[in-house]
Specification:
Helix content is 92%, strand content 0%. It contains 2 helices and no strands. It has helices spanning 4-27, 30-78. The protein is rod-shaped and about 75 Å long. The mean pLDDT is 94.
C-alpha cells in the first residue's frame, strides 16, 4: 500500500528531477539537453512502473490469502 511517505518521496523526486532538468537545459546545447532530460524522464517512469508493479503484487498476494481462507471455510463447512 502506498503510504504518505511514499507520496512525499514521489513529490520530492519530481521536484528534484525538474530542478536537474532546468540546470541541464541551461548548461547544455538543446540537442544534448533534450536527450539528458529524456533519460531523467525515463527513469522517473520506470520508478513509477516498479511502484505500480509492487502494489499489484501486494494486491495479488492479498487476493490469494482471501481465496485460501474462503476455501478453508468451505472445506470446514462441508465436512
Amino acid at each position: 500500500m502506498i503510504t504518505l511517505k511514499d507520496l512525499n518521496d514521489i513529490a520530492e523526486n519530481k521536484i528534484k528531477n525538474d530542478a536537474q532538468k532546468a540546470i541541464i537545459r541551461s548548461s547544455f546545447p538543446p540537442h544534448i539537453a533534450e536527450r539528458m532530460c529524456a533519460a531523467i524522464d525515463g527513469q522517473e517512469r520506470f520508478e513509477h512502473f516498479v511502484r505500480l508493479l509492487n502494489e499489484y503484487n501486494e494486491w495479488m498476494a492479498q487476493q490469494q490469502m482471501q481465496q485460501a481462507a474462503v476455501m478453508e471455510f468451505l472445506r470446514g463447512y462441508k465436512g
